[in-house]
Design brief:
The protein is an alpha/beta fold. The chain contains eight helices and seven strands, in the order βαβαβααβαβαβαβα. It is about 40% helix and about 20% strand. Helix 6 (about 145-160) links the parallel strand 5 and strand 6 (about 170-175). It is globular, with a radius of gyration of 16 Å.
């Protein structure tokens, strides 16, 4: 997987921290890593965005790139329109990912929100970009109630676009998981039609970076370079 797209079943579920964990694991194996954020929303021009957080956690060896930045925390198409700025097109995402893949062992493309969030006025989505790039899409899910339906819908959408998924990662696994979360570990593979590939602990992004990098491989399955 020289290029791997990362999407979430919704926003604020640990997508960036999961991306950082994959990046940290790959760097620890001596691989070169780039992280591409097609559309960063809700962050002003002078503020650190998601790629900066990945670098902070995974290490300064990560190459980063951003195609569009919009100040309001909205869907990329809406945020671009309201800011009077050009949207990000799926062709740009696929081209940027290919250029980074030419000089890196692994390129992680982190989406904004969920898979079908609109990127432009034509209704283009991260799924369109992944299809053009010929790259799989990792699904980051929440742990508890509602997660199975969201994972199933995301997987269904990916299949409708003809895009593969290596599996599902729980982006914020609670220290004291409830019944629904525990049962979901068995049910995610059936809902996604793909394996469970890891659990990133709740609050992992607050760990000291050195500890984050040391522990990250243990949160991920072998398919993502981990040891879980």
């Amino acid at each position: 997987m020289p290029v791997l797209f990362v999407t979430g079943t919704c926003t604020e579920i640990g997508k960036t921290v999961t991306t950082a964990a994959i990046a940290a694991t790959a760097l620890g194996q001596g691989r070169s890593v780039a992280v591409l954020k097609p559309a960063q929303t809700g962050v002003a021009a002078h503020e650190p965005g998601d790629t900066a957080e990945v670098v902070r956690l995974a290490g300064p060896g990560v190459t980063t790139a951003e195609l569009g930045r919009y100040p309001e925390p909205l869907a990329p198409a809406t945020a671009a329109r309201r800011a009077g700025l050009p949207p990000v097109r799926p062709e740009e995402v696929a081209e940027a990912a290919a250029k980074l893949a030419a000089s890196h062992d692994l390129v992680l493309v982190e989406g904004a929100g969920g898979l079908l969030v609109r990127f432009d006025d034509k209704g283009s989505t991260l799924a369109d970009a992944a299809r053009l790039a010929g790259a799989p899409v990792l699904v980051v899910a929440q742990a508890g109630l509602g997660a199975l339906n969201a994972v199933a819908l995301t997987a269904l959408a990916l299949r409708s676009y003809g895009v593969d998924s290596p599996g599902v990662v729980v982006g914020s696994w609670p220290a004291r998981p409830g019944l629904a979360a525990r049962c979901n570990l068995d049910d995610f593979p059936e809902a996604a039609g793909a394996p469970l590939l890891g659990r990133v602990p709740e609050g992992a992004g607050n760990l000291p970076p050195e500890e984050f990098r040391r522990r990250a491989p243990g949160w991920l399955a072998a398919e993502l370079g981990g040891t879980a």
